[in-house]
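Notebook entry, structure prediction.
Reason for the run: the old model in the group folder had no record of what sequence produced it. Starting over properly, with the input documented here first.
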Amino acid sequence: MQMASTSRGRAQDRAKVAAGQDRDVRCEAKKQGVPKETVKKAVKTAGNSRKKVEAEISRD
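New structure, fully documented this time:
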């Protein structure tokens, strides 16, 4: 896995939630105060945009 070498690349990476990456799911679940399964469901429903995932979780 290649790491982003520019700040733009890192910002773009943080703007997404990788449902297949346990660390991303775990961190988002902790931040939102919900179970990991809720985050995975939100990613499946809303896509991997962090803003859309957060909006989907807050709707439930």
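Summary: The radius of gyration is 12 Å.
The old model has been moved to the deprecated folder.
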